[in-house]
Design brief:
Blueprint (H helix, E strand, L loop, with lengths): L10 E7 L3 H6 L7 E6 L5 H8 L3 E5 L7 H10 L8 E5 L5 H10 L3 E4 L4 H14 L4 H5 L5 H6 L1
Parallel strand pairs: 1-2, 1-3, 3-4, 4-5
Length: 151
């Protein structure tokens, strides 16, 4: 398991998502302890990660043209993939070999879709053991559907 520097203060999370899924999932966390930035063009990931110095990257790029694999390759080429934990959301049809390849290349974790929020919380709790996530992010969960919609 990769080790990352400990974070004090507000956690910076980048969502790279061409479908809006991550924007919904991130609303499931109750906290003022994180700053969330969302981009929908995976080609922008290098610039955002280099300039933004994020503590966690959530990636869900499935549409043709620029996929998770393309983004992982781009980040790997400029040594940005292993600088922060990157969680990649993959299609349910993704092969175990494809997932293993992402992990070997430097992704922190891969989660098959459809994503169960319980699994995402579990992965984030696991991450918090090597790179503490402010506990308020994980403490009051699950949110009600009304709380999610109001965010």
């Amino acid at each position: 398991m990769q080790e990352f520097p400990q974070k004090l203060g507000k956690m910076k999370i980048l969502g790279i998502d061409d479908s809006g899924n991550i924007d919904y999932w991130i609303k499931c966390f109750h906290s003022d302890d994180y700053e969330y930035t969302s981009i929908c063009d995976g080609r922008e990931c290098i610039r955002f990660i280099r300039d933004g110095k994020y503590d966690l990257v959530l990636m869900d790029l499935a549409k043709p043209g620029y996929t998770n694999k393309d983004a992982i390759t781009s980040l790997e080429k400029v040594n940005l993939l292993k600088k922060q934990p990157t969680i990649v959301f993959v299609e349910s049809s993704a092969s175990d070999d494809e997932i293993d390849d992402f992990i070997v290349r430097g992704a922190y974790q891969c989660i098959r879709k459809p994503v169960k929020i319980e699994l995402l919380v579990s992965v984030l709790k696991g991450l918090s053991k090597v790179n503490p996530i402010p506990t308020k992010i994980l403490k009051k969960w699950p949110l009600t559907e009304q709380e999610i919609k109001s965010k």
